[in-house]
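Exercise 3.2. Students should predict the tertiary structure of the chain below and write it as structure tokens, then compare their answer with the key that follows.

Predict this chain's 3D structure.
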Amino acid sequence: MKAIVYDNFVKADVLRLDEVPKPELRPGDLLVEVKALGVNRADLLQRQGYYGTQTYGESALLGLELSGRVVAVGSDVTDVEPGDHVMAIVGGGAYAEYARVDRGMAVAIPEGFGFVEAAAIMESFVTAWEALVHLGEIGPGSSILIHAAAGGIGSAAVQIGSALGTRVFATASASRRAEVEALGAERVFDYNSEDFELGIRDATDGQGVDVIVDFVGGPYLGRNLRSLRPGGRLVQVGLLSGQDNTDISLGLVLHNHLKIIGTVMKSRSAEEKREMVRRFTEDGLPMFRDGRLRPVIGQTFPLARASAAHSAMETGGGFGKIVLTIDNED
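Answer key:
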């Protein structure tokens, strides 16, 4: 089968389409003919050598989420059949014509959704659901701040918060303010020209918010902690700033009994990922069927142009997910 490969950790142009062995089916797996796949920042980090030669999951190939048509099922799988359309989280291997998928990480594509839309759901919405609902414990009447709200996970988090009846505040560029507001944000602070800490203080009468979901880290940490109300939770999902060492006011954490929670999808065990998918499937997936949630797609590229997709993500400034598509019709 054809897949995206690379020989060294450099720029996006190292990515190329080549022939690789098709994955072998195990008893609890699905073999999926990939139709579309989401591009995630972890893919860029892997290509850049951030993880070294370590393989998280079960494939050294790039790609953490996909949508496609099931072509075969393992001997232990009884509730999925060849021909079914699924979307799934994978432990690598999505940048290919065929992928091996753990049955517990795959769900049926909601009725009315195509492969491209479905490819923009799993990684973003499962991660956002985990951060907000499971770890952040939001509920009706809660208040939340979502950083990088124009991105794939950020835009999913804004929608989830709005659908669950919370007050949603967000940061994004001024050019994306209207789009993020349309997803359900009450106020959007321009990260280039506005101080979100002052904005949150003003919007909440000095009380702060219950939960912050942050993808930036570094210089945001202190401002995040000061923007939380007593008992608040900071859920750290990424480090776009590139700074993983920074000062922290332990006095503030202790005095306001704050919680700092780290989460990332890529390094989780298979069982943890299954549980994350299960929680989302039970409570979040129905919201796609009734229209409260929707995938946000910024750009699409054919698989052979994976390098262009990576460059587009590195450039930034987009809105929603970048999706790669595969034309592998017989």
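Discussion points: The first strand starts at residue 2 and ends at 5. The mean pLDDT is 92.
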